[in-house]
Design brief:
The complex is a heterodimer of chains A (623) and B (81).
Chain A: H1 12-21, H2 25-32, H3 38-51, E1 64-70, H4 78-87, E2 92-95, H5 102-107, H6 112-116, E3 120-124, H7 127-130, H8 140-165, E4 168-172, H9 193-206, E5 212-214, H10 216-223, H11 225-228, H12 231-237, H13 246-260, E6 267-270, H14 281-288, H15 296-313, E7 317-323, H16 326-335, E8 348-352, H17 356-367, E9 374-377, H18 381-390, H19 406-413, H20 423-431, E10 436-437, H21 448-453, E11 457-463, H22 469-478, H23 491-499, E12 504-512, E13 515-528, E14 531-539, H24 548-562, E15 567-572, H25 584-587, E16 591-594, E17 600-605, E18 616-620
Helix pairs in contact in A: 1-3, 2-4, 3-4, 4-13, 8-9
Chain B: H1 3-18, H2 39-53, H3 59-62, H4 68-79
Helix pairs in contact in B: 1-2, 1-4
Classes of the chains: A alpha/beta (623), B mainly alpha (81).
Chain lengths: 623, 81
């Protein structure tokens, strides 16, 4: 799937129409940052060219005038290139000479190409053109001579372009589309077209000083040549690059142009739980998280960490942004034997319960880099979309659910495209050594309400019954962090609590526009004189910060009132892991009855209770 | 796909490719009827059909796609059974 790291676009036609009616560069950039197919790319390009025939004033990027010098049809590639530039906030004007005239245009100072004054030139010479003259008939010396002549021609093109225009010179790598004559040992037939092409391609990689490769051969190898080249369309329209690959082709061109402007991402920000290890450290603990050899999933997470560490060794800064208690989040970095990443690899470590957009701002500020230099890797679509919405300049890949696929996803996205490596790059990791340690974060400027409203959240609840008993019991016994009393019960005990008509045991499920989060909370109430005491309240940390707690309280208060209770009694029993909920009940409007080192009690009068307004609808599950 | 299903399917593709939602297709509709229907758009239409249906037309078929009726005929034939 091409552009698989970009999110799928919703309301495509409406958004395109709105953009056409009221052109806006930022809105166009936002739309370009979706997984657009070639037709959508063409449509967006159509609107773009109408509204922004010339670059808008005051762009942070440098506009590019790109000339494509090709030997076959490349007109169908312009839109993909312009839209991929737009994705990076770069305005690209594309020019190409008349069909088949690239050499004449390059040589003639009075040509339209010279009039255009390009600041970047892309040589897009097709495999047939590059191997013209190749044949099985050629002897070895003849084949060598042919390769030399072709390489000399390329060098000549580059040199003419450099002398005339002085800008970037891009060379598209040939696509390996020529059929073999011998087979796997094609190289032993020196004059074979595929042999000649392979040698030219290898030479491009060996020595192209001052020329940047647009290596579509690698992309085509991963996607399958058939996704990039259609022989039928070659014969019909001399399109070496298939039209459906045009958006991906444009990506590779625009990446190179952006890198030249220093507009590649600089920092990879990693979520922790279920992103660089399996499971939730706060609940599963050091022994429970999945990481390391001997287990396929654990090895896949090791591979994610390895890829991140290799990126840091070539100059990409690493940061952590996790919803966790800070010391809990650091523990694997300090003590887990299978961790590849260590605290010394992390330039900025942020683990707290703030929303992640706020934390991304803090990370950019601490590292003194722009938000548009951050790539945010998180398995949770809620967090990804919050950051996208609040900070559209942050690069947020649609991380595959399977960690085994994550490193290639990051590589495919090309966020860190860099044209060369310097000594500074190699030394960078050492320059950043956790320079942000639990510092106070800046004021929260995130418009969470607007985001939450759009999530279409529903909290459904059911009395714990045979259907939900197993999952409920499991949660009761593994939840450590958001757990007010940490009372552990077996299935029989839970069933007995649920059967008491004077009390209740609720299993709550959260559904949002990303899907069903499953049972995320369990709340058990027991009669206690005229009141109901909340024996257990536990919740998955994954759904923190959305108003789920207040919505749960609305349900619990209603359930208690229905049983004639006067008050709800809340209990907090501190453990080594549940400090995060110490102020849970006061935060929900309970008053303090008593506080102590072994526990605290709180009360809420039901007579005066006003349900809190949240963005979560509630309903009873009936099955 | 039947004829009756192929027309709305193809109409959607035409609306996307030409960025107009007022195009009404008849069997006789051909390139001269739609202002920007050139050889590039023809390829886009064909590739869009191929991608949507997971099929690949043969060069000989591509040579015989003059009007919408032809396209529908090939779509129906290639999606039959």
């Amino acid at each position: 799937m091409m552009l698989s790291w970009l999110p799928v676009v919703t309301d495509w036609r409406a958004r395109l129409r709105a953009l056409a009616a009221a052109p806006d560069w930022a809105a166009a950039v936002a739309l370009a940052n979706h997984r657009l197919d070639f037709i959508q790319t063409n449509a967006l390009d159509h609107v773009l060219r109408k509204a922004f025939a010339v670059p808008p004033a005051s762009l942070a990027t440098r506009p590019v005038r790109l000339a494509i010098l090709g030997s076959s049809t490349t007109l169908h590639l312009h839109a993909g290139i312009r839209v991929a530039g737009l994705r990076r906030g770069i305005h690209i004007t594309v020019f190409e000479p008349d069909y088949g005239q690239y050499w004449q245009e390059l040589s003639d100072p009075g040509s339209a190409l010279h009039d255009f004054r390009p600041d970047a030139i892309l040589f897009a010479l097709d495999a047939y053109h590059l191997t013209a003259g190749a044949s099985a008939r050629l002897t070895q010396p003849e084949a060598d001579g042919l390769v030399d002549a072709k390489l000399a021609h390329l060098a000549n093109c580059w040199s003419l372009a450099r002398d005339a225009f002085g800008g970037a010179i891009l060379q598209q790598t040939p696509l390996p589309i020529l059929p073999n004559l011998l087979g796997d040992n094609e190289h032993r037939l020196p004059g074979a077209p595929a042999s000649i092409l392979a040698r030219i391609t290898a030479s491009l990689r060996a020595d192209t000083a001052g020329v940047d490769l647009v290596a579509i051969d690698g992309a085509a190898a991963r996607d399958g040549i058939a996704a990039w080249h259609d022989p039928a369309m070659w014969h019909r329209a001399k399109q070496e690059i298939a039209v459906q690959a045009a958006p991906a082709y444009g990506e590779h061109v625009a990446r190179s142009l952006a890198a030249r402007q220093g507009r590649a991402a600089k920092c990879l920000v990693l979520d922790l739980d279920n992103t660089i290890w399996g499971g939730v450290i706060g609940d599963d603990g050091m022994d429970g998280i999945v990481l390391g050899q001997g287990n396929a999933l654990g090895e896949a997470f090791v591979a994610v960490q390895n890829y991140a560490r290799e990126l840091s060794r070539r100059g990409i800064i690493l940061a952590v942004c996790s919803k966790n208690d800070d010391d809990r989040a650091r523990e694997p970095f300090l003590r887990h034997p299978d961790m590849v990443l260590r605290l010394s690899d992390i330039a900025c470590f942020v683990a707290n319960w703030e929303d992640k957009a706020t934390n991304m701002r803090a990370i950019a500020q601490a590292l003194n880099i722009g938000l548009d230099s951050l790539v945010f890797l998180d398995d949770n679509p809620f967090e990804r979309n919050l950051v996208r919405r609040e900070l559209p300049m942050v690069l947020v890949p649609e991380a595959p659910d399977d960690p085994a696929l994550v490193p290639q996803c990051l590589a495919d996205a090309g966020y860190f495209e860099t044209l060369a490596v310097t000594d500074d790059d190699r030394a960078r990791a050492a320059q950043y050594q956790d320079n942000l340690t639990r510092s106070a974060l800046r004021a929260n400027a995130t418009d969470l309400d607007a985001y939450l409203r759009g999530l279409d959240m529903r909290l459904t609840w059911r009395r714990v019954d045979t259907l939900s008993l197993a999952r409920t019991t499991q949660l009761i016994n593994k939840t450590n962090q958001f757990n007010l009393t940490t009372r552990r019960y077996g299935e029989a005990e839970v069933a007995a609590l649920a059967a008491d008509p004077a009390g209740f045991a609720l299993a709550l499920r959260l559904i949002d526009c990303f899907g069903d989060n499953g049972v995320i909370a369990v709340i058990i109430g027991r009669p206690s004189g005229p009141d109901i005491e909340i024996d257990s309240w536990l919740m998955s940390c994954r759904v923190l910060g959305r108003g789920v707690e207040a919505t749960c309280l609305n349900l619990v208060a209603a359930a208690a009132a229905a049983r004639g209770a006067q008050r709800l009694i809340g209990i907090y029993r501190p453990t080594a892991k549940n400090a995060m909920v110490a102020e849970h009940y006061p935060g929900l409007g309970f008053s303090v009855i008593e506080r102590g080192a072994d526990g605290s009690r709180f009360a809420l009068s039901l007579a005066n209770f006003v349900p809190a307004a949240t963005f979560i609808a509630t309903e009873e599950e009936i099955t | 796909m039947t004829d009756a299903e192929a027309y709305p399917f193809l109409t959607e593709i035409f609306h996307d490719v030409f960025m107009r939602d007022d195009i009404v297709l008849t069997p006789a509709t051909s390139a001269p009827d739609i202002e920007t229907w050139d050889s590039f758009k023809q390829i886009e239409i064909i590739v869009a059909i191929q991608e949507a249906l997971g099929i690949k037309f043969a060069t000989s078929e591509l040579d015989r796609m003059g009007c919408v009726g032809d396209l529908v005929g090939f779509i129906v034939a290639r999606t039959a059974g």
